[in-house]
Queue: 3 jobs
Job 1
Amino acid sequence: MKHINKFLLLAVVAAALVSCAEDYESGHTYSKPDPVLETEYLNSFGILKTYVDRAANPIFKLGAGVNASVFLKKEVDYSLRYANFDEVTPDTALTHKVAIKNDGTTDFSTASSFIKAAKASGVAVYGHTLCWHANQNNTYLNSIIQGKAYSGTTLIADFESNAIGDSYLMTGNSSATVMADPAKQSGNVLKVGTSATPASQSFPKFNITLPAGRVLGDYKTLTLDFNGPGNGGLYGSGMRVIINSNAAVVFGSPSSFGCPDGAWGRGKIVLDLTKLNLSDADKALTNFTMAVGSGTGSGNYYIDNITMKWQYNDVKSPAQKMEIITTALNQWIDGMMKANAGYVTAWDLVSEPMSDNDSYLLKSGATEANASSYFFWQDYLGENYARKAASAARTYFAQYGGKADDLKLFVDDYGLENGSSTKCDRLIQIIAQWEADGTTKIDGIGTQMHVVYSLDATKQAANEAGILSMFNKLKATGKLIRISGLSVDIADASGAAIKTANVTPEQQKAMAAYYYYIVQKYMEIIPSAQRYGITLSNPTDVGDKAYGLWTSTYNRKYTYIGFLQGLAGQPLNIAK
């Protein structure tokens, strides 16, 4: 290692000082400083993994979480894990978010590099994770189930195919007659009303047949050209649109849309068809009569180029979404199994599926906070989504060189030790449901165990009771049981976290005793054949979190002793 233990350096200096004192026969004696004595005591213990009785625990793996990029540097973090642990679990290197790009292309190079480095070192890799709501490429997954938006324009009437003098029916009095554009700007236009018989709240009617595939509900706007004088419909009481025999819907007057007095307002009038208050039956119409015009008692104006713009969203049905997401899941698992080529034999098939709310079974985008930050496979694949994931994992693992019997699939979650929650019971229940098809097999259960040692004795007693209850429930499943992310933090009696710098030696010893309790009870309650192993979330302190067996500068702590003595089945004896 490049790192030099600073306390070990002090010990060397102290030894040198004693030696010098003896050479000069000063008559003085020197005691080693307490930190040096403490370090010597902590360093007198062996490498962590040597405390596992392999004969009594033939399948047991001692593991640690690791940042993949740090591991690949092969510096102190790498050496600590290589020396002390059998197995490493990378943080995100084997996740969907890293391998799948926003456009759906794949890049498994991070996974391959990590696995290659671990394999070369003889360290096993635990696969985290195949189906998780977190660390998915939400952008890609959401994009493939989103309906595409399509739009276009349908011509209702431009009167160019009409002969001069053709007429259209009106809703009331007066007339609507095709004539040449008096402004000579376009060909034919429709004259509504006359000076002799103005249209009085009467509007031309158009019989409309929509193009194939379109329905009235697809249309969002109606646009037309208008030319009329101030006393002939430019102002009035507003434009009107009537569908069949429905009531007229009122819009602004032509002048409010910017049409000039006595001249063409080309494309100025744009009416919002979503304000028509159409019934579902109306929205489904493909043939209908539409009347449109200016609401005035003295209508005498021209209209031209009536068009309607449609917009259609290709919304995917639940069945279509299930098919799309199933394909995406299969492609992702296929790529990951190809990348590891059978080396990674244990995986979190599903991670953190259970809702924290006891009123629900599984997490869901409909009930979880910050749901938009996650992707919930179960929302699209159904409660039994793990069946699809398990089938894909076993199929592709074997396809790319893995021995089928070697593959172990786990379901992992946090908070199972919480005695006030039903999460552990619900997890066991859903696994039984998944396996009820007679095909799906879940080999093991992972309990993360991010726990807190409480300085409140009553709370701490409840914490320990919850752990005992959980281990007994997990034992009863007969499945492999793995502590998948163990960390012991510390809180004062009020529940406030105690930061690393403020943890006293006595509090650290209490944390060590809690580590001992957890490991010892795991070894005691879980039968040998079910003990897959224990993985530490992070073996060192990180920032204000004092949960490590080592400090952030890689010095052993009292927690190291508590953990190893629990592992070895030795009596707890932290003090020298």
Job 2
Amino acid sequence: MLTLKTFLKPFTVPPDAPEMHVAQIHALAKQAPLFYGVLWINVAILVYDHLDHCPPWLTYLPLLLFTIGCTTRGLHYHRLSRCALTGEVAYRQLQTLNRAVFAMFMAMTGWSIVLTHYGNAGTQMHVMFFMTFTMLASIFGLMHVRSAALCCATAIPVWGLYFLSIGNTTQQLIAGSFLVFSSAATYLIYVYHEVFFSLVKQHAELHRLGSENLRLANSDLLTNLPNRRSFFTHLDSALAESEGRALHVALIDLDGFKPVNDTYGHPAGDAVLCEIGRRLGSLAGPHCLVSRLGGDEFGIVLTGLDAEDGVAEFGRAVCAAVARPIVLAHGVVQVGCCVGLAGLGESGRNWARLIEHADYALYHAKAQFRGSAVVFSRELERRRDWRDRVQQALHQADFEREMRVVLQPLVDAEAGRIVGFEALARWTSPSLGGVGPGDFIPVAEGIGIVCRMTEILLVKALAAAAHWPPGIGLSFNLSSQDIAHPQIAARIAVLIRASGVSPARITFEVTETSLIQDFVKAKQTLDALKALGCTIALDDFGTGFSSLSYVHRLPIDRLKIDRSFISEVTENDTCRDVVRTVINLCRTLKLGCVVEGVETAEQVSVLTNLGCEMMQGFYFHPPMEAEAVDALLARTDRIDALLAAPARAA
């Protein structure tokens, strides 16, 4: 039984080669119409030669059957040539082909043998040559399908042995030659099958590698999300197909991701990115494309959200999904994000403009507060235009001439005296007029000129402080780019020595946001400033990520409670409790505590009862010009004189 199976195996179609099956059907379908056409012509000529020698049932009936068979099979394969076949369909087609070929050539052999009993020696030679050339042509025509070619070849021994047994010498010699040539053709069937199978395997492998390369070129290797290239390709296609449909783009930037990398290592950061990608994918749905654009940035192409409220709600849902705690192997972490969204309504059908609008909305969201989502609007477009004008003016600005510092008092409410001043930047542009620090400082950071601006402002602030009594301090703000600059501490040391102001009188204020950008470099800078003898204050305390971690890992001497907690401290119990907690924390850690944004006497009273001593705000005095500070300190350092002074904001 095993021997019989081995013998019959070449006559069957192997079920485990779907790529081979599809390739065989496609190759066969291309030449099937020609094959069946030539076969029908040869049959018709043979029938015509036997019309005068055979009864009609041996001529017209076979011709009719061949006509039906060749026409239906030829049309069938013509249709297959235009279809996308699966491996399963191709497998069934090949099995049908084997059965059809075997039945057709056995029937043709029997019909030809019967025809040899009619006619004369010439018609017998015609029959002999008909079978010889038809079988050989069929074998080579079916060469792509070994099993079908071998099924065709099964008729060769029957036909050859028949003429060897009954034919004359010439016919026997022709039959012998036919058998020898057929044997060689059968061998070639095996050789060609191996070659064709190898080519199909190579083509399938090349197709697989091409598909894999295409996937790699368009996928993010870490998250398996589409990458930046795929995002823009999809956006371009979506814009082309978006006639009459809503289309929006969301750009997402993570907050607090770098500390995860710094604290837990890059594997933990990779796990966070994968989890964020999974959450965004489940949130966006099947009709939206979520991509990782690079680093901790993601992008989403949104379809189907028509109303602006729905787009804003989606942005808030993204922020909420990202903000959920993430469980890692070494602990639980939490990051946030800001989202900028823009739609076709404001951007037209230009994808570059759409991305530009979404990017500006993201920039605006990050400037507001963490965890916010902003949809680009006409109002934002006006702000962007203003920002562009500010940027152009900054490029052309003479900082020495146009920049100045104003000084806001820092008071000890319990002692009733002024203890220092915070230097605040002011810029008067020849083309724009007075520009607020909230407008020009973020732009200066964006175009990389804030460090140069910082040095000029610090020189001016130190020059002002040089005229003050020794007990009056100076607070000065450093940006994220300042504290990340490798040479900033050395430059500041040179400027302080040149000014003659004692480093002990100088406090440098940094925000939690600035520390997040590059914690290692920030720590190096702050350590160097601390070594000079300067004081370090953490500004806007309580509004950033992992606030307490900075307190114990950095050389912090003072905390400044953000004004957002002070505005409602007289009415809101929660705000009052937060302030009390921070004040107690400072006492425990032996840190100074400053409350900024004090605007009313009621706030002063509540803060004093909570134990706060150092305060700053418009209640005591708005920022003052340097000359006004000199005049004030020349008379007294008491708060009473400060409160009695004209409250003109500078």
Job 3
Amino acid sequence: MNRQIQKFSFEFEYLTNLLTSLDPISIILYGSFGRGEGAIYSFKKEDKLLNDIDILLIVKKKISDKRIKKIKDKLLKKIDVEWIDITQKTQIDLKNSNASVFNYDLKYHSTILYGDVNILNLIPTIKKHEINYNEIKILFYSRIWCFLGSYKKGGIVNLEGYEAAYFKNQMAKVIYAMIDVILISNNKYVSSYYKKIEVFKEFFSADYDSLNSYLSYALENKFSPSSDKILVSEIRSILSDLASEFFKVFSSGLSLAYNKEINGPEQIVRAFKRDHRLLIKKWMFNLFKPSRKNEFNELICRTYLVGSIINKDLFSQAVKYYKLINREERGNPTYDDIRVNIVKLIF
């Protein structure tokens, strides 16, 4: 039995009971908590779920977004967590699953909370070498957020308590994303955070001195991040170190994904601008989902903004794309002005 589900039995029982009202075939907890490796923040003998809760519903027929949102809002009023993500698939969707990181983790390392316990057998067998290099793009899209959304509005200040723990946990996610890129690039992907470190140490640590120096930090702050005070100077140093390594590791991984040599933020942006999938998505959102029409420009803006941590000349490009997103902007926005408007902050 997943020990974290036992530890937070009230939260997961409430969640399961509420979701069964939607009449799913199965309710699956995936992601960190599905593997029993979710982050927990401890303060004054009380524990809080730090990672988001990821739920997959297996349904006979897709449920309306309105009903899902209503359930999610109700859950968030009772469960002390920042995010609850609820997605849904049919049995046919499972049978047609591709060789992605998401599906690999789902099939082999998730927890069924309710329903058919054999439902994940519908997902075809996925071997590590079958995981596509395109997964590296997805990791980039999601983890570049961590540099920008890990601290509150107002710029970098000393952090302590929950805010310090949250920042450290986000940086651990960045470190693990880089390890995932290296593992995927070499057909050695594993789901468990502990195993990722083991495989990295065994095969790759000698080639990544900077990343190697952050392994203990990643392990500690992924599972039980410290609330100890962290100073501005240390925050800036960590952001700079990890941003530099992030672009090196992802440049190498994205070179495989795009089958061309890529080096640094500017060339990453150039690859995104020529990526047919991204461009089709941009076109589709412009036509059919106006609420998401800025996603492509936000991705480019985030890339340049994080890139400016290590190369200040890139900031002007971040400003350029920010003004495409926020056309009412007429002045000279600061780094923090842009940051708080292109990511959703929790503080």
